[in-house]
Write a sequence for this structure.
């Protein structure tokens, strides 16, 4: 029995598989997909905001694509892949050369130019001015709080606003930086209303015996009458009028407890009331 002979078809010469070209092609395809996705996202955003512009851009893209395809009748994907691979190799070589070059150290002249500029900036810096409270625009409660804030600013501890009903003449109490107990009464008066001797007598009756003050101070937004100032001097109470308060607030005058000469001239509480 004879077996018919099968004709073997000659293999057509095909293109050889190029791994590098294929990898580059897939890389370009991935980049193209990313770019296309980004463009589509932008187009959708534009379409939501301005639909008329989106229609114009789509029509323009279609027309440009048709013109490009007709003008590229001899377009070859393989040629495109080879060109892209060559460009990628050239870019890689250029990047490696740039990384291998040592970075030049900055010259002394550059430092000489930069340092004076920095010094000029530092010289023009000025400290922010501290805000000064206008005590004439405060309410009585705010006036007491402002006095307490001055005590805190000048280093007092345990500063407390105790003014109110039943305060027995004490509005602010604190401990001075040298450890003395400071008791302050605040009188928020207008310019035409001065602190009289009766106010000093009421304060003098409680500041030492009840509040155990080492330094008793009466601060006013106005001024003191002559009898009131005389009584305060006899009892060892420090009087701070509007002018002295402004100096204290602006840092031009000492705090009341820093007036050591007046404190040293004052007699002990037992001696005051025996006279």
């Amino acid at each position: 029995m004879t077996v018919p002979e099968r004709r073997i078809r000659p293999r057509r010469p095909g293109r050889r598989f190029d791994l590098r070209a294929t990898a580059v092609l897939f890389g370009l395809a991935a980049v193209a997909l990313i770019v296309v996705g980004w463009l589509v996202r932008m187009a959708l955003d534009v379409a939501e905001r301005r639909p008329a512009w989106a229609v114009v851009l789509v029509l323009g893209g279609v027309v440009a694509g048709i013109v490009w395809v007709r003008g590229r009748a001899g377009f070859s994907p393989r040629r495109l892949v080879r060109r892209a691979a060559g460009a990628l190799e050239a870019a890689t070589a250029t990047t490696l050369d740039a990384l291998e070059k040592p970075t030049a150290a900055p010259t002394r002249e550059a430092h000489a130019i930069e340092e004076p500029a920095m010094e000029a900036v530092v010289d023009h810096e000025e400290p922010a001015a501290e805000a000064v409270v206008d005590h004439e625009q405060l309410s009585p409660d705010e006036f007491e709080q402002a006095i307490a804030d001055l005590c805190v600013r000048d280093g007092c501890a345990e500063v407390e606003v105790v003014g109110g009903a039943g305060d027995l003449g004490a509005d602010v109490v604190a401990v001075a930086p040298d450890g003395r107990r400071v008791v302050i009464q605040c009188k928020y008066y207008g310019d035409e209303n001065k602190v009289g001797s009766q106010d000093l007598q009421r304060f003098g009756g409680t500041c030492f015996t009840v509040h155990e003050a080492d330094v008793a101070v009466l601060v006013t937004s106005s001024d003191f009458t002559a009898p009131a100032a005389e009584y305060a001097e006899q009892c060892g109470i420090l009087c701070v009028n509007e002018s002295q308060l402004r100096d204290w607030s602006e840092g031009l005058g000492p705090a009341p407890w820093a007036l050591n000469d007046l404190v040293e001239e004052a007699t002990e509480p037992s001696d005051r009331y025996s006279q």
Notes: The mean pLDDT is 75. The CA atoms of residues 159 and 174 lie 4 Å apart. Residues 19-49 form the longest helix (31 residues). The longest strand covers residues 181-187.
